[in-house]
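Action item from last week, closing it out:
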Amino acid sequence: MQEKYDFRVPQKALIFYKGKCLAVKRSPTAKVYPNCWDFPGGKMEHGENPTEGLKREVLEETNLQVKVIKPIFVHSEKNLNHAYLIVFECELIGSEEIKLSPEHTEYKWVKKEELLAMETEPYIRELFC
């Protein structure tokens, strides 16, 4: 009998505002890539629409509301399970006041060059290089 596992596809929001993109720093207790810079986002809940799931994750993690424009990048990485991650271009709507969830310790609005000089999750380097 084949072992079953939970297959989830994380989604990340590339949010540009005034020529910079939002980066959030993962907490030191994160299971994967602790203390690394990332984009807001996460895993969809079972049966959830991808667009609504990403909007929910961004709101939970940053208190920001976004309009999901389109998928712009897919990353494949082998961790415990084979994972795919999708990055979506997003537009900030409403207030730009950020309130981080406990999943992250810092945030910065950065230019691409600044982001690439930071310790990031691997997909970010692949996206921009």
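Closing note: The domain at 10-128 is CATH 3.90.79.10 (Nucleoside Triphosphate Pyrophosphohydrolase).
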